[in-house]
Write a structure and sequence with these properties.
Structural class of chain B: alpha/beta
Order of helices and strands of chain B: HHHEHEHEEEHHEHEHHH
Strand content of chain A: under 5%
Shape of chain A: elongated
Distance between the termini of chain A: 28 Å
Largest sheet of chain A: none
Order of helices and strands of chain A: HHHHHH
Radius of gyration of chain A: 15 Å
Oligomer: heterodimer
Radius of gyration of chain B: 23 Å
Chain lengths: 132, 297
């Protein structure tokens, strides 16, 4: 079961809907967690580090791994998989913006750092496409 | 539960429906949590000026700030102008790192930038000193009359100032290292005790955590936070972030101003924000007094 779940992080064509649902859920949960933690435990170094990682590191690195593995498995689907990962970035952005519906001072998504993250993700995807 | 539903229903539809329902419920619950967490910040960010402490008001404000690029300095200057227009006297409390070489502007190297960012991410503060410099009734500073104290940490008697305006920029989501250093000093915290406090944040774009930190620390130091005013640089992402990095590297002298507007975004607050800050100063001067119940809250 664990193996089956981990397989979803490679965007298998036969289970693409499940893979996207899982990754979208992770992106939404990570963004909600980031926005929640921003105002929690102001003195905590651990919480602050978590906020930083959730702002520009964890999600881009995860999606970079997903994109690299999916291209390695199915090089002919490189473009499709890149588009799907781009769609997950849209999910990430919309998750952040959705918090503005309940509270105007959440600031929503941090588009600047998301784009920095996208450089990490799609840069990795480009390397994968070149190598495979 | 979903597997059982799947088995009983003989298909995916019921299980998928239950899973979707569960997910929506979880999302809505989480959004509810986001709404109620730190509701004090939500109230402050609505723009209202809260009632101040019931104490004598010598109508004198202490402006506590650290400014690396001058953006924060410009912001605090406008708050001061509003306060002075409304009949307040202002004293500056410019915070300075004891190791000024650590925080140069423009940055001396990429390594220095990376060290500062990592320090901000891991909440490494820096020892600071400060000097309380009075202004005359026209708002002109008189550095010759500044009090520095024996080790550079000037003290402020609560009776001298009824209001503190504290400004910080955001470094990697949090309060800047020098301002953090101020709050890690007992004498620094004493600057806020028994006074009304207004918190101003100036940043590229992310002020939420640095605001929460500053509001919390001012309260823990014995101050009553009555107003907040967050401000972001103008422009759209991602050029706003890239422009900031370029500005920190080049400084104002080598900043390619001819590219500003087309490719690069401005690095100082726009006029409407400065006008807002001046108005904030005037409104702070006329703040109401809290009742006993409000103070207890």
């Amino acid at each position: 079961m664990i193996g089956g779940l981990l397989d979803l992080f490679r965007l298998p064509p036969a289970r693409i809907a499940e893979a996207l649902a899982l990754l979208a859920a992770i992106m939404v949960a990570a963004e909600y967690l980031r926005i929640t933690l921003l105002v929690v435990a102001p003195r905590s170094r651990f919480v602050h580090l978590a906020c930083g990682l959730l702002t520009v590191v964890l999600q881009p690195v995860l999606l970079a791994q997903v994109l690299y593995a999916s291209i390695a498995d199915h090089p002919e689907r490189a473009g499709i998989n890149a588009a799907l990962v781009a769609g997950l970035y849209v999910v990430w952005y919309l998750a952040g913006q959705s918090t503005l519906l309940v509270r105007r001072d959440t600031q929503g998504a941090d588009l600047g750092f998301m784009i920095i993250g996208a450089l990490i993700t799609f840069g990795t995807g480009a390397v994968a496409a070149l190598l495979h | 539960m979903y597997g059982f539903a799947w088995h009983v229903s003989g298909g995916p539809s019921i299980a998928a429906f239950l899973a979707a329902g569960g997910a929506v419920t979880a999302l809505l619950s989480w959004l509810g949590l986001i709404r109620i967490l730190r509701s004090d910040l939500r109230v402050l960010n609505s723009g209202a000026i809260g009632p101040g402490l019931d104490r004598p008001r010598p109508r004198r404000a202490l402006l506590v700030y650290y400014s690396l690029s001058g953006n924060g300095g410009q912001a605090i200057e406008r708050v001061a102008r509003g306060l002075i227009d409304a009949g307040y006297q202002c004293d500056d409390c410019a915070v300075r790192p004891r190791e000024p070489g650590r925080f140069q502007f423009p940055f001396a190297s990429v390594g220095q930038f990376v060290r500062i960012m990592l320090g901000a991410l891991f909440r490494v503060s820096t020892p600071v000193e400060w000097r309380i410099t009075p202004r005359d009734r026209d708002g002109v500073r008189d550095p010759g009359r500044g009090e520095a104290g024996g080790d550079g940490d000037a003290e402020s008697d609560p009776a001298d100032h009824d209001l503190v305006v504290c400004l910080s920029q955001t470094w990697m989501l949090g309060v800047s290292a020098p301002i953090q250093g101020l709050f890690e000093s007992q004498r620094g915290r004493a600057l806020f005790a028994g006074r009304d406090v207004a918190v101003v944040n100036v940043c590229r774009g992310s002020w939420r955590r640095s605001q929460a930190q500053l509001v919390t620390w001012c309260g823990e130091a014995g101050g009553r936070v009555i107003a907040v005013s967050p401000h972001v640089n103008p422009g759209r992402e991602p050029m706003r972030l890239f422009s900031l990095f370029l500005f920190l590297a080049l400084g104002p002298d080598r900043w390619p101003a001819h590219l500003q507007g087309r490719w690069l975004t401005p690095q100082f607050l726009p006029d409407e924000d400065l006008v807002h800050l001046e108005d904030l100063g005037r409104r702070l001067a006329g703040r109401p007094v809290a009742s006993d119940d409000e103070v207890a809250r």
